[in-house]
Specification:
The complex is a heterodimer of chains A (about 250) and B (about 375).
Chain A: E1 7-16, E2 19-29, E3 34-38, H1 45-52, E4 60-65, E5 81-84, H2 96-106, H3 111-125, H4 140-152, E6 158-162, H5 170-185, E7 189-194, E8 205-210, E9 213-218, H6 220-226, H7 234-246
Parallel strand pairs in A: 3-7, 3-8, 5-6, 6-7
Antiparallel strand pairs in A: 1-2, 1-4, 8-9
Chain B: H1 2-26, H2 28-48, E1 56-62, H3 67-78, E2 82-88, H4 91-99, E3 105-109, H5 113-119, E4 125-128, H6 133-157, H7 178-209, H8 211-216, H9 222-252, H10 260-285, H11 288-305, H12 318-324, H13 328-340, H14 346-370
Parallel strand pairs in B: 1-2, 1-3
Antiparallel strand pairs in B: 3-4
Helix pairs in contact in B: 1-9, 2-7, 2-9, 3-6, 7-9, 7-10, 7-11, 7-13, 9-10, 10-11, 10-13, 10-14, 13-14
The chains are: A alpha/beta (about 250), B alpha/beta (about 375).
Chain lengths: ~250, ~375
């Protein structure tokens, strides 16, 4: 088995006009890891996720997903990739079942495979009672679960989640994370972007993004220890790192 | 391996097409725009727009007051194309009727008309209100025809017949009915609206609501997205052609005299070109409001103004004539008139079909090239 990481960014730069969204970001995520891209709004999290999914092409550096360039249209990488975008991008006028069926067909699932995947995913997402409901009539949490189910239909090796808990109530947030851990047990690699610092503690490793730069990377406990705070107070770690990066000094409280 | 790849490609295209059908079924406005509106517009346009001018008000200044002059007036007003609104002997009063809008024309029969008829050299004067050019032109033509008919009657009664007589017969639309002229043009116009506008809107909507991002994260290819999205609208477009032609035949007695193959081929090529144009607009604009405006400017208006639907292409100024060569509706209008009215087939209409095929190929190529599977 190869030791190559499932996902790798090497000195990746990406700009939109005058705005530099990513300034030479490098990171590597191994198989079966839960990697958190943590940072405030505008840090470059969505750009990084989109680059990994091949939805954007980097201005410089190299992006590898499962050993391939994901931006190459001929790449087969999408067969092994699942994406839950930040925005509600499912078809709101289609029901839960219709959305699942549509994406299953795009991923080329057989009828039998779809039937068993549908049953399993509706079970773990607890959406079984809402199969006839239109996607735009679902609550925020249920919508995210449907998006997750659609992204998991084809059993991807890597799952990218862009702020999956954004706008989701605390109970649904916890359920969603429990669901993600179930997936990791199945051997999937997860990359989760989030602006919520408390969610960093749920990841195996985190990369702290700020103004397009990866200002720190490591295990959440390790980073907290380095800054002399509890892992549950990850916000203090982040603020200390930002102050150090901005040259404003100070030590985390 | 290749078979499996092809099967998956077809599967994804059908998935895209199936999803689009669901959207159409859920959005009653799209169905209305696609199917009900064309028939409604056909009826409105068919009955509302007519170039047939009759019941024109006529003022007669009869200064001769003889049996012949009265016979002439009777001949001119008998068909009811002209209705006698005023009769007198003063040319000034006749002109007053014209100025007041009570009459569109004044027929002046001069003193000595009967004697001149007998002598073989009679003249009458027709003063026409030129404020409405189209009506004036038709009024002149109709009056000329009616006076000619009366003239032939007088000549038959005279000892010698006129030396030269032209017998005009209008082919393909002998009664010059506007509906026969309008329905083929209207069909092209309506198809252009639906094909370009709906396609532009539906693809732009995917960009706006972000679902394109979700699609790009799946194995579906850009050609599969394009073909899958266009197929349902191609089906709707062809259904629309059938509806419009059936309504045209049923309500306005528009015949189908020529090759059905040429008709089907023309409709298919025209629709593919229009769908390709809609797709190109949506790929470039990625916004429904802008897409609507661009679609209106580049397809709906030219299809009405530069296709020969209403204004003859021969009458366009030279620069617009050149521009009209880039408008596929021009070729489709010509194809429809050829098949429906002149009884033409592919052997005659191949240049029009070729022009539409070239347009379709160019539009689809441009749209596919611009349609990158990325968000930047």
């Amino acid at each position: 088995m190869s030791d190559a990481p499932d996902v790798a960014l090497e000195d990746v730069r990406k700009g939109f006009g005058a705005t530099q969204a990513l300034r030479g970001v490098s990171l590597a995520v191994g198989h079966g890891e839960v990697y958190g891209l943590v940072g405030p709004d505008g840090a470059g999290k969505t750009t990084a996720i989109r680059l990994m999914a091949g939805l954007l092409r980097a201005d410089g550096g190299r992006v590898r997903m499962l050993g391939e360039d994901p931006a190459n249209p001929r790449s087969q990488v999408r067969e092994g990739l699942g994406l839950v975008p930040q925005r509600n991008t499912l078809y709101g006028d289609l029901s839960v079942d219709e959305n699942l069926h549509f994406f299953a067909r795009l991923f080329g699932l057989s009828k039998e495979d779809f039937a068993s995947r549908r049953e399993r995913l509706l079970d773990i997402t607890r959406l079984g009672r809402f199969t006839e409901r239109r996607a735009d009539a679902l609550s925020g949490g249920m919508y995210k679960k449907l998006a997750l189910a659609c992204a998991l239909l084809h059993r991807p090796r890597v799952l990218l989640l862009d702020e999956p808990t954004n706008g989701v109530d605390p109970v649904s947030r916890r359920e969603l994370w429990e669901l993600l851990y179930t997936l990791v047990h199945d051997g999937m690699t997860l990359i989760v972007s989030t602006p919520y610092m408390d969610e960093a503690a749920r990841c195996h490793r985190v990369g702290l993004l700020y103004a397009g730069e990866l200002i720190a990377e490591g295990g959440p406990r390790e980073l907290a220890r380095q800054h002399g705070v509890a892992a549950s107070n990850f916000e203090a770690v982040f603020l200390a790192l930002v102050e150090r990066r901005n040259g404003t000094g100070g030590r985390a409280a | 391996m290749a078979t499996s790849h092809a099967r998956r490609t077809v599967g994804r295209i059908l998935a895209m097409a199936g999803k689009e059908v669901l959207h159409i079924r859920r959005d009653i406005r799209t169905l209305y725009l696609a199917l009900a509106m064309p028939v409604l517009l056909l009826v409105l346009f068919g009955f509302g727009i007519s170039f047939d001018v009759d019941h024109l008000g006529l003022a007669v200044v009869d200064q001769d007051r003889t049996a012949q002059s009265r016979e002439l007036v009777r001949n001119v007003t008998a068909s009811e194309e002209f209705i006698l609104q005023w009769e007198g002997t003063s040319p000034e009063e006749g002109l007053r009727e014209l100025r007041r809008g009570n009459a569109i024309a004044v027929l002046v029969v001069p003193r000595g008309f009967a004697e001149d008829v007998a002598g073989g050299g009679a003249q009458v004067q027709l003063l026409v209100d030129g404020a409405d050019g189209n009506t004036a032109t038709q009024a002149m033509a109709k009056a000329q025809a009616l006076v000619d008919a009366a003239s032939r009657k007088f000549a038959a009664a005279a000892p010698r017949a006129p030396p030269l007589e032209v017998r005009v017969r209008t082919l393909f639309n002998p009664n010059s009915r506007s509906a026969l002229f309008l329905v083929p043009g209207l069909a092209s116009y309506l198809l252009a609206i639906v094909a370009v506008l709906i396609t532009a809107l539906t693809v732009a909507r995917e960009w706006e609501r972000g679902s394109m991002e979700q699609l790009f994260a799946t194995p579906v290819g850009r050609m599969e997205i394009i073909v899958g999205k266009l197929l349902p609208y191609l089906g709707i477009g062809l259904l629309q052609v059938l509806l419009v032609l059936t309504a045209g035949a049923w309500i306005f007695d528009v015949p189908v005299r020529g090759s059905v193959v040429a008709l089907g081929l023309g409709a298919l090529l025209f629709l593919i070109g229009m769908l390709g144009q809609g797709l190109l607009i949506s790929v470039v604009t990625r916004n429904q409001v802008v897409a609507t405006q661009v679609a209106t400017m580049t397809s709906v208006l030219p299809s009405m103004l530069l296709s020969g639907f209403i204004f003859p292409i021969a009458n366009l100024p030279p620069p617009l004539k050149v521009v009209s060569m880039l408008i596929p509706a021009r070729y489709f209008v010509s194809t429809l008139r050829g098949v429906l009215l002149r009884g033409n087939g592919v052997d005659v209409l191949w240049p029009q079909l070729l022009a539409m095929a070239i347009f379709a190929a160019v539009m689809l190529t441009l749209a596919t090239r611009r349609f990158q599977r990325r968000l930047d």
